[in-house]
Q: What sequence folds into this?
């Protein structure tokens, strides 16, 4: 799957991923009102609203981008109807030939970790038949359990030809409470980065490993160090835009070949119409605002890479 992601990045010339993380207050009123008229102000109504919202954004941007990253928590808050909307979103994105990164941040050990991996990336056996559950292309994984928690995911990925992005240095302000702690004179995130590079060594695509890393855009200097520690690891970079990351800050996340990283923006794109810069589009044309935000993001990152 990493080969497909790279092929899509090259085709679009856009090393970016749109985070489909829909809060209900991001959804324009006309979409909410239509959903509530059909399903009432219920979990089903909310799920229908976010699904229709997602569909509009995907339709407006799918020709510009290689991938999307739905965050499962934004769907889980609406219970089973929300998870149904999550699955519909995944299937629709795949019908548009987009790579889907399931932002699930799972992590456990043994059979529990294997069940998470099968449910999201593999196939579950039912009698004589097997079925894909959510069927994302990649999933994010929390490595706190160590190899016992990651290996079941890697095993499923090898079988299903899927990929992972493992949390190494996250973009949130308090990440340093644990991730920056020194162990034998080096911060924990460096040790985790080395482990990720090691796990990925036996699971390679043509040029990069199927085992990627998550490194926040808000810590560019740390990203520079981790890029060197993980030369064959693709880096998923959250924190662009709304959290403060900009193209000029991100050049060190990429290798000299212009690859090696994919930058995520969530509310900066899906709620672009709420920003002053894109307010002229209005709520009715929220998807057009998202498209313009994607174009601006691509120009920002591409310009920074060209001028480095």
A:
């Amino acid at each position: 799957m990493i080969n497909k992601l790279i092929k899509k990045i090259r085709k679009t010339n856009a090393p970016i991923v749109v985070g489909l993380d829909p809060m209900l207050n991001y959804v324009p009123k006309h979409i909410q009102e239509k959903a509530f008229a059909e399903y009432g102000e219920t979990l089903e109504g909310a799920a229908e609203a976010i699904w229709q919202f997602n569909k509009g954004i995907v339709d407006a941007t799918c020709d510009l981008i290689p991938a999307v990253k739905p965050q499962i928590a934004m769907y889980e808050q609406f219970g089973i109807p929300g998870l149904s909307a999550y699955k519909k979103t995944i299937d629709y994105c795949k019908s548009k030939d987009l790579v889907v990164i399931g932002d699930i941040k799972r992590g456990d050990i043994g059979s529990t970790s294997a069940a998470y991996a099968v449910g999201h990336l593999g196939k579950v056996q039912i009698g004589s038949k097997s079925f894909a559950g959510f069927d994302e292309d990649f999933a994010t994984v929390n490595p706190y359990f160590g190899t016992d928690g990651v290996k079941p995911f890697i095993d499923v990925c090898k079988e299903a030809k899927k990929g992972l992005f493992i949390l190494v240095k996250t973009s949130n302000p308090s990440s340093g409470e644990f991730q920056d702690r020194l162990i034998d004179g080096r911060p924990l995130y460096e040790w985790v980065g080395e482990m990720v590079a090691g796990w990925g060594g036996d699971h390679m695509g043509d040029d990069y490993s199927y085992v990627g890393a998550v490194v926040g855009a808000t810590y560019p200097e740390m990203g520079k160090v981790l890029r060197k520690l993980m030369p064959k690891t693709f880096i998923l970079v959250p924190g662009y835009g709304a959290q403060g990351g900009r193209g000029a800050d991100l050049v060190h996340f990429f290798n000299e070949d212009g690859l090696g990283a994919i930058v995520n923006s969530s509310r900066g794109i899906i709620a672009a119409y709420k920003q002053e810069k894109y307010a002229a589009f209005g709520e009715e044309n929220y998807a057009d605002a998202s498209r313009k935000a994607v174009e601006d993001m691509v120009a920002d990152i591409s310009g920074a890479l060209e001028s480095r």
User: Anything to note?
Assistant: The chain has 13 helices and twelve strands.
